[in-house]
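The pair is quoted verbatim as follows:
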Amino acid sequence: MLDPGENHELPVIPGKRYFTIGEVSELCAVKPHVLRYWEQEFPQLKPVKRRGNRRYYQRHDVILIRQIRNLLYVEGFTISGARNKLELDNPPPLDINRQQAIKTLISELEGVLDVLKKL
């Protein structure tokens, strides 16, 4: 848990496109080794890796890290509990084929409903 003395307001996220692991560490008050560990535990957290395997986080990654930090350190969730909470709050998007299949099925069912209404 966080020490009450350390429970200060996090800094504002600057309007940059990419952030290094050191910058994210300061913005989220989490050490770099913890960020690397969270990448293994939370599938939603995938920073861009460039030359020399350097990590570059985007704004949405920083927001996600702050959510993870809040769940773990403030609300007292376990890693698996926080992972489940994030998955429930942000379900993965449907792939294109699945979306198209659902639209086709809805269209066909509406056609069947129209035929039944005429009977």
Confidence is low (pLDDT under 50) at residues 1-7. The domain at 4-93 is CATH 1.10.1660.10 (Multidrug-efflux Transporter Regulator; Chain: A; Domain 2).
